[in-house]
Design a protein that fits this description.
By secondary structure, the protein is mostly helical. The chain is built from six helices and no strands. The model has no long low-confidence stretch (mean pLDDT about 75).
Length: about 150
C-alpha cells in the first residue's frame, strides 16, 4: 500500500519533469527569464529615481520622475515600487527549489507582487499598497515552500 503511493508520487514527479508544452510556459528557464526581467526593471526604476547608492527618501515608493524617459514606457506603470523586484526574487527562488508546490505558486505570488500596488493604490497610499502586496506575495511563496503534498 505504501509502495503503491510512493510509486504514484514518483510517477507524478517524473511526469512533471518531462518536457511538455506546459513546461515551456512554467518551467525553470521561463521563470528565470521573468524573474531577471522583473529585477532588472526594478533596478532601472531605482536608478531613475536616484535611489541606488543613496539613503532612500520618503518618496521611495512614488512613480518615476520622468516616465517619458523610460525606454520601455508601455510597461513602466508596473514598476512603481520595489515589489516587482520581490516578485522576481520569488521567481528565481522557485528556479532553485525543485519542489512542485513552489513552482505552481510562484506565478501567482509574482503576479500579486507586480500588480498588487497598481490596483491597491486607488484604495490606500502607495507605500501601504506596496507593503500589502509584498506581504501577500511572500505569504503565497512561503505556503508553496512549506506545504508538502
Amino acid at each position: 500500500m505504501v509502495d503503491a503511493k510512493k510509486r504514484e508520487k514518483q510517477r507524478q514527479d517524473r511526469a512533471f519533469d518531462e518536457k511538455g508544452p506546459l513546461q515551456y510556459l512554467i518551467g525553470p528557464p521561463m521563470r528565470g527569464v521573468v524573474g531577471l526581467l522583473l529585477i532588472a526593471g526594478t533596478g532601472y526604476w531605482l536608478y531613475l529615481n536616484g535611489l541606488i547608492g543613496e539613503f532612500p527618501s520618503p518618496t521611495v515608493f512614488m512613480p518615476p520622475k520622468n516616465p517619458e524617459e523610460i525606454p520601455f514606457a508601455p510597461i513602466a506603470w508596473l514598476f512603481t515600487s520595489i515589489s516587482p523586484g520581490v516578485g522576481g526574487l520569488i521567481m528565481l527562488i522557485s528556479v532553485v527549489l525543485k519542489r512542485r508546490n513552489i513552482v505552481w505558486l510562484s506565478w501567482p505570488a509574482a503576479v500579486v507582487a507586480v500588480l498588487g500596488p497598481v490596483f491597491l493604490v486607488a484604495m490606500v497610499s502607495p507605500t501601504l499598497a506596496m507593503f500589502i502586496s509584498v506581504g501577500a506575495a511572500v505569504a503565497i511563496a512561503v505556503l508553496g515552500i512549506v506545504y508538502k503534498r
